[in-house]
């Protein structure tokens, strides 16, 4: 009987573990794809930046589906401003939990890939700075729209509605930032394409010039031979014409009758 209870407990524990894996995979796949900012505060946010999402508590707000964080912090379930050590530790725990080799969930490879990309982005200083700036920009835009200041009570103690609005504004800023980045990239690629085409045309022009020079040099002997033949033939023709004319003139002169001189007196 005791063995049966142990087996039952082990089965329940295994089932619970698989449930946790499936839940984590589902959470990662539903996180905002552009970047990553999450709901559990492993450290304080950036200076002057209040976490835009409600944190877990024993008595959560009365709602069945609390707002999820919109972006790469979201994939790792972290807050902006966490140290790199927390990023590495969280990634290690979650990667071991959802590793494709340790679960039969067919979506595990996709979730694992997103988890790795999120960790890579947050470890990149440039990309992480861009994310943090987008969140800060969203907050300032929201304050401006609502004519609030950093000292306003609604800002110092943000309500759930304010956090949801901040979340929405952050998504808008991130999407706009990504749109501008891709537009700049397309423009850069087009410019690089034009530069490459110009370079290719110059290379082709230089090649054609070299080919003409080579062809001209290769035909040099032929041109010289043709000129020699022309000049030699010209001299021979001139000599033949001159000799024949002289003989003809002499014959004509010799055949001409002389006039008889009349005697004087």
Give the topology, please.
Blueprint: H1 2-30, E1 36-37, H2 73-76, H3 84-98, H4 108-123, H5 125-145, H6 153-156, H7 160-218, H8 220-254
Helix pairs in contact: 1-4, 3-4, 5-7
Q: Helical region count? A: 8
**Separation of the first and last Cα atoms:** 186 Å
Global mean pLDDT? 75
**What low-confidence regions span 5 or more consecutive residues with pLDDT below 50?**
34-70
Judging from the principal axes of the Cα atoms, what is the shape? Answer: elongated
Number of E-type strands: 1
Order of SSEs, N→C? HEHHHHHHH
Strand content: under 5%
- Give a quick account of the main beta sheet: strands, pairing sense, barrel closure: none
| Derived structural class | mainly alpha
What is the CA-atom radius of gyration, in angstroms? Answer: 47 Å
Fraction in helix: 55-70%
């Amino acid at each position: 009987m005791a063995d049966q209870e142990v087996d039952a407990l082990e089965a329940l524990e295994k089932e619970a573990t698989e449930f946790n894996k499936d839940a984590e995979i589902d959470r990662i796949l539903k996180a905002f794809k552009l970047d990553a900012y999450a709901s559990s505060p492993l450290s304080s946010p950036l200076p002057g930046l209040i976490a835009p999402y409600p944190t877990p508590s024993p008595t959560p707000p009365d709602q069945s589906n609390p707002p999820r964080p919109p972006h790469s912090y979201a994939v790792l379930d972290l807050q902006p401003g966490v140290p790199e050590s927390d990023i590495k530790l969280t990634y290690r725990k979650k990667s071991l939990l959802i590793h494709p080799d340790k679960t039969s969930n067919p979506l595990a490879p996709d979730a694992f890939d997103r988890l790795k990309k999120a960790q890579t982005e947050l470890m990149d200083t440039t990309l992480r700075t861009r994310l943090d700036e987008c969140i800060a920009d969203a907050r300032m835009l929201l304050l401006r729209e609502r004519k609030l200041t950093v000292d306003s009570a609604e800002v110092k103690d943000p309500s759930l509605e304010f956090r949801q609005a901040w979340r929405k504004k952050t998504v808008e800023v991130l999407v706009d930032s990504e749109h501008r980045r891709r537009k700049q990239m397309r423009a850069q690629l087009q410019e690089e394409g034009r530069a490459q085409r110009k370079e290719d045309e110059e290379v082709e022009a230089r090649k054609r010039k070299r080919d003409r020079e080579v062809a001209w040099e290769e035909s040099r002997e032929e041109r010289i031979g043709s000129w020699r033949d022309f000049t030699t033939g010209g001299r021979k023709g001139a000599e033949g014409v001159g000799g024949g004319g002289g003989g003809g003139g002499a014959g004509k002169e010799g055949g001409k009758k002389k006039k008889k001189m009349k005697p004087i007196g």
